[in-house]
Structure formats: C-alpha cells, structure tokens
Amino acid sequence: MTEVAQSPQGRTHYFILIAVVVAAGLSQGLLLPVLAIFLERMGISSSMNGLNAAALYVGSFAMTLVAERVLGWVGFKKLIVSGLVLVMLSLLAFPLIPSVLFWFVLRVLVGIGDSALHYAAQLWVLMMSNSKNRGRSISFYGMSYGLGFSIGPLGIPLLKYGEAVPFIVLSFLFLVILLIVIVKLPNWKPERSAEGIQQPKGRYRTSYRLAWFALIPAFLYGYMEAGINSNFPVYGLRSGLTLEQISILLPFVGIGGLLLQLPLGIWSDKFGRKRVLMFAGIIGGGCFMLIPAAGTDFVALLILLTIAGGMVGSFFSLGLAYAADILPRVLLPAANVVASFHFNAGSIVGPNAGGAVLETGWNGGMFLLLGGLYILFACMGLWFRAKSVSEQN
Hints:
single chain, 393 residues, mainly alpha, globular
C-alpha cells in the first residue's frame, strides 16, 4: 500500500479517508454537547448524563472487539460504507423520540458506526505511510478528526431553528461522503501478514509487551475528548458561564489540537515521539489543572483550553505512530485494535468519572483529575525503553 499512496490515485484515496474522519469527528463533536444540554434541561443528573454519553463508546468498544476480523472479511470500503450508513440513520432517529433510553441505544449504534470508520480509515492511512513521513501523515489524519470534532459544537446555535436541524444537516453531509466513498474507493483488504499467512498467535499480548507506553495515549485521548465534551457544558452552566460562552469555548480544545497536530507530528519525526509525548503530557496536564483557578474568566479559559487541547490533541495519532515505529508491520492491525480498545475504554471512563466528581459538588475536581493523569503518563515515560524491530526478532 505504501507505493499506492505515492500515486495521484493513492493521494485521492487518502483525502477521501480524511473526509471520512472529518465526518466522524463532526458526529461526535456535535452529539456529545447537544445531548448533554438536552439532558441537563430535562433535569437528568450529571452522573446519569455522563453514563448516557458513555453509551457511544460502549458501542465503539463492542465494534473494536470484532473490527480486525470483520475488516479481514469485507475489506476497507465495505466496512467504511457500513459505518457511514449506520451513523447517518441513527442521527436521523435522534429527534424522533426524546427518551433517555432511546438515545442510549442510538448512541451505541453511532459508536459502532464511528468505530468502524475509524478503524478502517486509520489503519489504511497507517499502512500507506513509512517511517520517514509517518508522523506527518498520521498527524494530518488526527488533525482532520480534530477539525471535525471542533466544528461539531458550532452546530449548537442551529438548535434555535429546531431541535432536529443539527441532526438533519449532519446526516446530509454523511450522505454526500457515502456517495463519494461508494464511487471512488477501491475495496482493498489488509495484508494478513508479511508472508501472506494468518496473523501470529499472541499478537495482542506481544503488542502490549513491546509498546505499552505508546498505547496508553489512546486511553488518555479518549478520556479527555469524551469527558470534556460531555461534562464541560454541565461544568460551565454550574460555574456561571452562558450557553453561548460554552459553545464558543468547547471548540477551542479541538482548535488547539488543529494548530499543533501537524507541528507536533513533524517534531516527533525529528526529535522522537517519546520525548514529544512526554513534553506534551506535562504542559497539557498542567493547563487542565489550572482551569478551575480561572473561574469564569472567559479569556483565561479560552487560552488554557487551547493550549491544553493543542498539547494533548495529538496523543492518539502520535501514540499510534510511535507504536508503528516500535512494532513489526505484521503486528500493526493488532496494535490498532488495542489502541481503539484503549480509546473506547477511556471514552467510557471519562464522562462517568467527570460526572461522578461533578455530582459531589467539586466542579474543579474533574480538571485536576484529568491533568494529573497526563502528568502521571509523562512520568511513566522515564521507565519505558523501546526495542528496535531487529531486537524483537
């Protein structure tokens, strides 16, 4: 696939995959805050609000368990098409019945669809790249997801035209991308192994053993992303921020990621991914821990959220690129599954942990916990030593 990626046709496929991941980011970036606002207005507790938000990642987690096998059966194109259709139909169903239980089920379905999109698209991009451009290409992929996720909350003002409007607009976008994928993408299947035989036994355990530090960032990124988008609207409303201020502030977590995603990827190619991950974890974690001290100061909150988002917004993509540096090519599909598993686990834990802290009345605790986890990760890097591929064989 690396050779294909260098051709004009390969570049076309790459940018179609980028469009797919932008749409996936949009769906999550819009659903999390909009439904959190709906549930808060309905008088649902913050802990139940977080639990309902986590449903999206329950579905994503379930898909992760079978993603590698399903991709081997149907190929990249069919898996992406299936994910697009499932998310599009689920989005159209949200406004029909304003029920907590109904929304829980729909979020599970959206999670399944989004996970299918992510797994297929990110593995395809990863297999297209080589060690010299991997940081740049996977960071651009992550930056594109961040773009979609950042634009998502900007759909909140569409609610004044009707509660169904944001969902209809997003569904139409999914339809357009679905048609492009059907017409333009080939139905490639991943390599089974370097020798064309089945994947080695114990590949998940081996991936953990060789690259555990590179796989943790996926958990932290999922924790941050889902926790911030699900809990920050509740945090903001209880702290005295207006709905308009919340809708403006939320995208800046993603905007920070957009601004620094590509530079961090390039720096990781030059200075090493471990060093960049540790540095970003310390700075990003520190900024999160300062947010409670900013109170309702809009400018201070905007600056802190932008810097924090910029530092940790690359964690998933940089961690995956680092794993690709460490692991043999045949283990990349398994590592991709593990990273997705970690992302979904973090996305489930994040809203629930934040919601539980908010339930105690200690609003600032959600940011102290979040920042502390990133700083702890950076310290763990002192104990990790990556082995070269030659040392592994």
